[in-house]
From TrEMBL:
The protein, known as: VOC family protein
Gene3D superfamilies found in the cross-reference section: 2,3-Dihydroxybiphenyl 1,2-Dioxygenase, domain 1
InterPro entries membership: Anthracycline_SecMetBiosynth, Glyas_Bleomycin-R_OHBP_Dase, Glyas_Fos-R_dOase_dom, VOC_core
PROSITE patterns on file: VOC (PS51819)
VOC domain residues: 9-122
Amino acid sequence: MTPFLPAHAAVWFEIPVSDMGRAREFYGAVLQNELTDMEGPNPMARFAAKEENSVAGHLYPGKPASEGTGITIHLAVSTPLEEAMERVTANGGKVVSPVITIPGGRFVYCLDPDGNSFGLFT
């Protein structure tokens, strides 16, 4: 399987997680790409993107907001969106909205295993 590597996942984002290993596995499975360890003052795992200088973000050990609160980052995912939604639930997350269609594409709101809000966008 060829991994889906978007040109731009977001401007830059940081997602606080309580368990780095679990979070890496969750996001890697849902997005179908591998996160890369980064050097820094804390452990970090960078989301994959098409090029090294592409817009992206990372996971870091931190205190997530209460379930369903905090900001929502929309992450690029390959189509079909419904398969990505299945990967969310199969890996311990929750899909919390129906698919929403807008002129630019389709998306759905989800929660990761820590309760962080995120969207999947195609």
